[in-house]
Amino acid sequence: MTHRGIHIDGRSVPAPNPGPAPMLQWLAIDRLVIDEAYQRPLLPGNWRAIEKIAANFQWSRFAPVLCAPIAGGLFAVIDGQHRVHAAAICGFAEVPAMVVQVGIEEQSRAFAWVNSQAIRVSVFHIFKAAFAAGDDWALRADAAVTAAGCKLMRSNASASAKAAGEVYAIGMIRQLIEAGQDRAISAARAALRAVPSLDRPVCYSDFLLRPWINAVAASHCPPHPVLVRALEMRNPFKVIEDAQASLDGSVPQAVKAREALRRMISRAEVGA
After folding, report:
1. Rounded average pLDDT over 42-66
2. Which of 69, 186, 222, 233 is spaced 20 to 30 Å from 138 by Cα?
3. What whole-number distance in Å separates Cα of residue 138 and Cα of residue 34?
């Protein structure tokens, strides 16, 4: 296991005006309120997010709520109203909070700042954390890709730095794993690796991989020699392009691509 400390070597030192020091405490949920002057309303999408938090509630995933004291012994929630509602659904009476002594103007500014400065976590970070946690989808995704002699990457790279066998389409792989297509992932990739002309970075992109894996799954994972023969018979990129260029607009492009590749596999099975 590798750890790193907090290092700021060579960084410039600002002259902050941090305001009053916050207090950390547990607050009763019935003393928390939402100031609609600056807070978001709870629409159906918000409630879905709240219910998801509640369904997976763990204190280790609960960041302290940011609040400010107001009249009547109440506290305005600056950041964390989704978490508070989820905790209430779970039956908790209190939540951990960081209380700052600021007025309505700074509450509004703090809300805007906190919600605009969040650093987005990429699918690579999510996969890396899920794998370290031993989550089923992450372990299966890594195993399926590794079984084909490929590597499911933990971080992105520039186009010029990518190599054959490196798989960056984490989101796509997760969707396929959750659809139970582990075997198809391994079989489809192993076939690509076996065809020299297709063992290059561009062939590991979503454009080819998704319809190819789906076609292999729809064909019930034929033997490796059949899949290799299918890829050698005709350029799969050309097959996809021709299928997507067809005039039938009632069929989604993804379905066209999958079915065209499935037919290519069928022809290889009969030796056509």
Report:
1. 94
2. 222
3. 37
